[in-house]
Amino acid sequence: MTPEPQIELSPRISDEVRKTTCYMCACRCGINVHLKEGRVTYIEGNRDHPVNRGVLCAKGAAGLKQVTSPARLRAPLRRVGPRGSGEFEEIGWDEALETAVSWLKPLRETAPEKLAFFTGRDQSQSLTGWWAEQFGTPNFAAHGGFCSVNMAAAGIYTLGGSFWEFGSPDWEHARVMLLFGVAEDHDSNPIKLGLAKLKARGAKIIGVNPVRSGYNAIADEWVGITPGTDGLFILSLVRELLRAGRIDLDYLARFTNAPVLLDCDPKSAERGLFLRDEEGRPLVIDRRTGKPAPWDGEGVEPDLRGRIRRAGVTHHAVMFELAERYLDPGYAPEKVAERCGISPDQIRHVAAELARAAFDDPPALPRRWTDFRGKTHETMPGRAVAVHAMRGISAHANGFQTARALHLLQALLGAVETPGSFRFKPPYPKPARAHSKPHHRSRPGKPLDGPPLGYPQGPEDLALKDDGSPARIDKAFTWENPLSAHGLMQMVISNAHAGDPYRIDTLFLYMANMAWNSSMNTRGTIEMLTDTDETGAYRIPHIIYSDAYSSEMVAYADLILPDTTYLERHDCISLLDRPISEPDAAADAIRWPVIEPDRDVRAFQTVLLDLGARLGLPGMVDGAGAPKYADYADYITNHERQPGIGPLAGWRTGPQGIAHGRGGPNEAQIESYIGNGGFFTAEIPADAAYYKPWNRAYWDWAVSLGLVDGPRPDLIQLWCEPLRRFQLAAEGHGPRQPPDHLRGRIRTTHEPLPVWHAPLSDAFEDPAAYPVHAITQRPMAMYHSWGSQNAWLRQIHGVNPLYLPTHWWEKLGLAEGDWVRVTSSHGEITVPAAHMAALNRDTVWTWNAIGKRKGTWALDPKAPEATKGFLLNHLIHELLPERGDGHRWANADAVTGQAAWFDLRVRLEKSAAPEESQPVFEEIRSTVGDAR
Amino acid sequence: MTALPDRTDRKLGLVIDLDTCVGCHACVVACKGWNDQGYGAPLSDQEPYGADPSGTFLNRVHSYEIKPATGGAQHVHFPKSCLHCEDAPCVPVCPTGASYKRAEDGIVLVNEDACIGCGLCAWACPYGARELDLAAGVMKKCTLCVDRIYNEALPEEDREPACVRTCPANARHFGDLGDPDSAVSQLVAERGGIDLMPEQGAKPVNKYLPPRPRDAWEGEADVLAPYLALVAEEPQGFLGWLDRTLGKI
Amino acid sequence: MQPARSLILFTTLSGLGFGLLVWLGVDPTPPTGWVALVFFALAFLLALGGLAASSRHLHRPERALRAFTQWRTSWLSREAWAAALALAVMGLHGLLLVLDIVLLPLGWLGALLSLATVTTTAMIYASLRTVPRWHHWSTPALFLGLALTGGALLSGRVPVASGLLLVIGALQLWVWWDGDRRFARSGTTLATATGLGEAGTPRALFPPHTGDNYLLHEMVHVVGRRHAMKLRVIALLLMVLVPLGMLQLPMPHVFGLLALVSHVAGVLVSRWLFFAEAEHVVGLYYGRR
Ligand SMILES: Nc1nc2c(c(=O)[nH]1)N[C@H]1C(S)=C(S)[C@@H](COP(=O)(O)OP(=O)(O)OC[C@H]3O[C@@H](n4cnc5c(=O)[nH]c(N)nc54)[C@H](O)[C@@H]3O)O[C@H]1N2
Ligand SMILES: Nc1nc2c(c(=O)[nH]1)N[C@H]1C(S)=C(S)[C@@H](COP(=O)(O)OP(=O)(O)OC[C@H]3O[C@@H](n4cnc5c(=O)[nH]c(N)nc54)[C@H](O)[C@@H]3O)O[C@H]1N2
Ligand code: SF4
Ligand code: SF4
Ligand code: SF4
Ligand code: SF4
Ligand code: SF4
Ligand SMILES: [Mo]
């Protein structure tokens, strides 16, 4: 026998490790990038990083292939063929920038709103939003309107913070975790790390989802709910808990507005608003005196039973309304079960499980703390029920109220910011009132009067012109969707095309594949982008787009500003924006060029600042009109939003040298970040780490770090006053009145207490004609459209069958390899089918964004993504079908305007297998040549 | 070299927890990334941007649906790489001696310099753990990251397989399954770890922890019933209860 | 599996070649001179052609000599040795015969080695527990039977060939019948493969990769199996029945040749089925076999 071969057991991995931040998705994990001879050879997770603690997902580990993708754009492009042809010529940067300036400068000087600047997967919204503000256009938003504004807005209006990536379950102490409609989410790795912790502790995970895959597959219990009915299920839980008295009375009294007194005078124009004192502070009854007192008065002990008689009218606390509303037998498990597609027993069981986890032997941390009323508590009592939810709830037209219902459930259990429940990540908590309001007044040559996006408190804050018409191109903050806090990116192209509410000149898009997977009604969007007016000119005259890759959208722009990849640029993941904080620490991070681009591309943020300087935008030029910032890195270091507050909180300069949080710019700041692995964290002191919204120590800490200027404790808004203000307007009160056709809808959808109403589309599409719900899920190993250019990832997900439940599989007599025709009220697709038993009875689904247009992403036009892959988007329309009432209603939440992707109803037929998935789109000429 | 060692000093291997694996494929790509630049030939891809892409991976994540006798269907994600079998059938079939099992730790490796690419070892493996690299023409398989676990150029904490290090759901554990006191052995004992295809006689070292029982609530409904004992049915009754309860405080 | 042309050709041709060598080796009155040259050249051509075809199956053929090293454990290595020794011994025997020197024991040794070669080839497959259809004594039996039959036909041994044809016909039928049951009998199922049987009946859901890979291409190839029944009939006809009929006809030279051609065509079909119908247990993981 020959001896075992000698193998090298200790090879050196690389010459150098550079630590930066991943951007294969928005989770923003820390990565160690290994380089050999200047080339990236291996990427692994950074163990010290607060987000991922060393782990990395499939996309992150495949980043190597993203940076070498043949689909990378190589130089600025000017369109030479018709839109959509893919015919471009390469131009230099000066020419590109001058072209942009030649389009934009006249707009700024005459009508800044004629620029619509919308950004997709943007991680620099504090820069892009500020840029739009300085340009003077109200027409700015990122993609939140079609993403998850329901979740964000419901959270902020109710709790002062939301799930999304702005809060997190207390993985250390939770005993039951309720997970609603999550396939992957932005917090990809933290959620997985957390679920593993729960499992290790023997905590119970309950997955509420029509599809049992991913997180729901490992859930100990699965609630296979029918899409769009979560609100009913949740309110049924609420009813069961109320009936059993399994609610946290002390918590409700102290930390929610359940004890706040309502104006109950039926004749009052303020009915349903809070009773207030002279200083405008909402009132409660103080248990110590039995008298009204301001909610936040020193030592006040709010009484849940509070009522007061004034001028012959009894005004009572929100708690009365709550009991009245939710003890309604209409929410009984037996009543809702059928509609929700689950059994009444399971509803009751989940309610009992929550009660047990919350109230049986609750955890209590031995940490002394003082609340905002000055009361000192010896411990931090816990409620070990953690909840997390995402688009499964928010991507429905009833998503805002459903998310509110979920927050109500949490609050009743005392399960917000208590040990074992849900915790905010700084800069949250930040209640709606602490956010800016939307600004929309544009004036020639002037900046906007303030940030374009925000959180309206009532009709007076809507973005309406004096004539009542929408001020924004996307009609955000109008009566159709008053609380559209993230704008409505999904409406921009169709409104701009229709010239409704007005024509625009230039559509400036960044990082959003609007000609494909991020649009509803993809074919229609493509037609709108290419449609011409009587003169033969495009109806949307100019389109500027920044992408890093040869995506579908590139083909539809006139001017392409090619971006770097994430390893080739500076980025700033800022506390002013969407930071990477954890419940125990504020944290922000950077990206930095760990490799140099090998093409004629520039970081978009640098280009934006350059454009701003060329346009002479305030803040981007100095007194002499010269550019203020050399590039984005310079901006990150030196820009100050207010004195002492810049994009990055770490390593600023203070009176005694380095200071964190508040402080002047520091030329070595980015170097310090790099030295620290690319991120900065500021720990929250233990006594400030829970009960944050009401915890004095927390506010002291937040003020010292510069997160806020002063403490701003607030109650959980079970009763949401801004909603009531819109309702009052719909009832005819107040100077600003909705159009009549919207009154009824505002009244029913803007209930100040969470309600459930059927998804809007149910009223427009005959459920009998379209009996099946069709939804998508994100594959964990793919990020939207980008993954398909990745040589490794596309081998994992190169095609996406439509998964059918057993009921429909058998009903249609399908066998492996069969195809189905899927028809909605809007369109039809024919696609490969597959069988999945662990699925809601009437739901079909597929992976999102696998289908690709031929000729894009540097893939072979015969690539499976283009021949078998498909999008559900062809079936979804941004407007609901005609109903003969003279209006096309938006397929969106009536409160926030969130696109209702998951309200899609379809019918299914078996189909002969076509050559390719239908519909087939014409091939686009590759903008990067034949890279194969 | 093709004879299996009579015994190995240690039995290094993986324990994979089917209860927590969410099927994210992180381990698949981490493995590809590590081994693309590590032990032996890089892991090639054929037609990476073409109509029929394929490539060599040493770790793959399957997924299975389970239909229990009663109750709803369940779903299990199932990662699979070489199980470093004690009676590895892939080793003795190798005509060149390229395939071997290390006596010191039981890791099964391919000496790529000796491999003729006949594919027989892959045929002998019941688990589909070997993939022939079409560019290099040699057999590739999981090395248990032998170039990490002893790597003195790596910090101590990183001396574990790339797939284990990256798994966000903590579903992968690495250790000595020959030592009953090791953490992995304890885990296997505690959770009733199992062998795949025991009837094939390969005696895999890697163990799988079966998913914990799911949807067990139907039996539990009674236990939990008291938690929903009624205090009130009507709003009035509820407010009365509220009054009484708060009165007590 | 994917029926690789190189393997089908190799096993068929070399089987024929070594089969012929066996008969040449045991012939008490072996041909000598030119006749011997023709017979031996033919046998060598077939055997070596088969080996050459098989080396096409190697991805690193330049290292093929290494395959001689592991005869202690590897049937493939043993095959290399057996083939080399058989060819050497029979080469010597043939050479001597051409020179009119008859050394019968040398022929017996060569015949033995030739039989060993066919056996080792078959054992490569039969030893694979992972392919229950192959993992059976009948695999070497059939390989040997076919080699001997082909050899007998080639060397014009009509009565022997007829008898052998009957035997292998019966054996082949039974191998198919029994082979269809072996996977089930092996006890390996998706439940044992995943260990998930306790909880219920598992079924493959999401594939681990939508792209192709070596395993799928090599072991889980299912195309063609649909026609298995038809092909079995064709194989049996060509391999056994037609030659058997022809052999009973006059003009043994013409019909003997036709019988041989038919038989070899039949063996090729049967060998194609041998590979195409092989179901590797790894297919279970992919929800296929
Ligand atoms: N059917 C269906 N459709 C959906 C959804 C769904 O669930 N179902 N989800 C919706 C949701 S929530 C969202 S957020 C959208 C997402 O949709 P998009 O925001 O359009 O997401 P991507 O497809 O990733 O497109 C982003 C673009 O950014 C480009 N890009 C990538 N990296 C860079 C870079 O570094 N710089 C620049 N400048 N560009 C870059 C990519 O090439 C791509 O063209 O999809 C929506 N569409
Ligand atoms: N790997 C990866 N990660 C990503 C992304 C990506 O493309 N890939 N995209 C990022 C983006 S932009 C976003 S917005 C987030 C979104 O993250 P998720 O919210 O996880 O997004 P989806 O994949 O759309 O998942 C929606 C889930 O809701 C379920 N669902 C649908 N309708 C209902 C319903 O009515 N009720 C309930 N309870 N569930 C329902 C679906 O089955 C699905 O599991 O992910 C981010 N993270
Ligand atoms: S979750 Fe994955 S892709 Fe997203 S940032 Fe983290 S490692 Fe990168
Ligand atoms: S899993 Fe396969 S390759 Fe690995 S040792 Fe076992 S038989 Fe060999
Ligand atoms: S492919 Fe290589 S390792 Fe496998 S049996 Fe053949 S020579 Fe040995
Ligand atoms: S141990 Fe190493 S080689 Fe084996 S599967 Fe894990 S990462 Fe791949
Ligand atoms: S990384 Fe972990 S959770 Fe993800 S597929 Fe692999 S084993 Fe499962
Ligand atoms: Mo999103």
TrEMBL record, chain A:
<feature type="region of interest" description="Disordered">
    <location>
        <begin position="913"/>
        <end position="932"/>
    </location>
</feature>
<feature type="compositionally biased region" description="Basic residues">
    <location>
        <begin position="432"/>
        <end position="444"/>
    </location>
</feature>
<dbReference type="GO" id="GO:0016491">
    <property type="term" value="F:oxidoreductase activity"/>
</dbReference>
<keyword id="KW-0479">Metal-binding</keyword>
<dbReference type="Pfam" id="PF01568">
    <property type="entry name" value="Molydop_binding"/>
</dbReference>
<feature type="domain" description="4Fe-4S Mo/W bis-MGD-type">
    <location>
        <begin position="15"/>
        <end position="71"/>
    </location>
</feature>
<keyword id="KW-0560">Oxidoreductase</keyword>
<dbReference type="GO" id="GO:0043546">
    <property type="term" value="F:molybdopterin cofactor binding"/>
</dbReference>
<keyword id="KW-0411">Iron-sulfur</keyword>
<dbReference type="InterPro" id="IPR009010">
    <property type="entry name" value="Asp_de-COase-like_dom_sf"/>
</dbReference>
<dbReference type="InterPro" id="IPR006656">
    <property type="entry name" value="Mopterin_OxRdtase"/>
</dbReference>
<comment type="similarity">
    <text>Belongs to the prokaryotic molybdopterin-containing oxidoreductase family.</text>
</comment>
<keyword id="KW-0408">Iron</keyword>
<feature type="region of interest" description="Disordered">
    <location>
        <begin position="423"/>
        <end position="467"/>
    </location>
</feature>
<keyword id="KW-0004">4Fe-4S</keyword>
From TrEMBL, chain B:
<dbReference type="GO" id="GO:0046872">
    <property type="term" value="F:metal ion binding"/>
</dbReference>
<dbReference type="InterPro" id="IPR050954">
    <property type="entry name" value="ET_IronSulfur_Cluster-Binding"/>
</dbReference>
<dbReference type="InterPro" id="IPR017896">
    <property type="entry name" value="4Fe4S_Fe-S-bd"/>
</dbReference>
<protein>
    <submittedName>
        <fullName>Fe-S-cluster-containing hydrogenase subunit</fullName>
    </submittedName>
</protein>
<dbReference type="Pfam" id="PF13247">
    <property type="entry name" value="Fer4_11"/>
</dbReference>
<feature type="domain" description="4Fe-4S ferredoxin-type">
    <location>
        <begin position="12"/>
        <end position="31"/>
    </location>
</feature>
<keyword id="KW-0479">Metal-binding</keyword>
<dbReference type="InterPro" id="IPR017900">
    <property type="entry name" value="4Fe4S_Fe_S_CS"/>
</dbReference>
<keyword id="KW-0411">Iron-sulfur</keyword>
<keyword id="KW-0408">Iron</keyword>
<dbReference type="Pfam" id="PF12797">
    <property type="entry name" value="Fer4_2"/>
</dbReference>
<feature type="domain" description="4Fe-4S ferredoxin-type">
    <location>
        <begin position="72"/>
        <end position="104"/>
    </location>
</feature>
<feature type="domain" description="4Fe-4S ferredoxin-type">
    <location>
        <begin position="106"/>
        <end position="135"/>
    </location>
</feature>
<dbReference type="GO" id="GO:0051539">
    <property type="term" value="F:4 iron, 4 sulfur cluster binding"/>
</dbReference>
<keyword id="KW-0004">4Fe-4S</keyword>
TrEMBL record, chain C:
<feature type="transmembrane region" description="Helical">
    <location>
        <begin position="80"/>
        <end position="99"/>
    </location>
</feature>
<feature type="transmembrane region" description="Helical">
    <location>
        <begin position="7"/>
        <end position="26"/>
    </location>
</feature>
<feature type="transmembrane region" description="Helical">
    <location>
        <begin position="105"/>
        <end position="125"/>
    </location>
</feature>
<feature type="transmembrane region" description="Helical">
    <location>
        <begin position="231"/>
        <end position="249"/>
    </location>
</feature>
<keyword id="KW-0472">Membrane</keyword>
<dbReference type="GO" id="GO:0009390">
    <property type="term" value="C:dimethyl sulfoxide reductase complex"/>
</dbReference>
<keyword id="KW-0812">Transmembrane</keyword>
<feature type="transmembrane region" description="Helical">
    <location>
        <begin position="160"/>
        <end position="177"/>
    </location>
</feature>
<dbReference type="GO" id="GO:0019645">
    <property type="term" value="P:anaerobic electron transport chain"/>
</dbReference>
<dbReference type="GO" id="GO:0005886">
    <property type="term" value="C:plasma membrane"/>
</dbReference>
<feature type="transmembrane region" description="Helical">
    <location>
        <begin position="255"/>
        <end position="274"/>
    </location>
</feature>
<dbReference type="GO" id="GO:0009389">
    <property type="term" value="F:dimethyl sulfoxide reductase activity"/>
</dbReference>
<dbReference type="InterPro" id="IPR007059">
    <property type="entry name" value="DmsC"/>
</dbReference>
<protein>
    <submittedName>
        <fullName>DMSO reductase anchor subunit</fullName>
    </submittedName>
</protein>
<dbReference type="Pfam" id="PF04976">
    <property type="entry name" value="DmsC"/>
</dbReference>
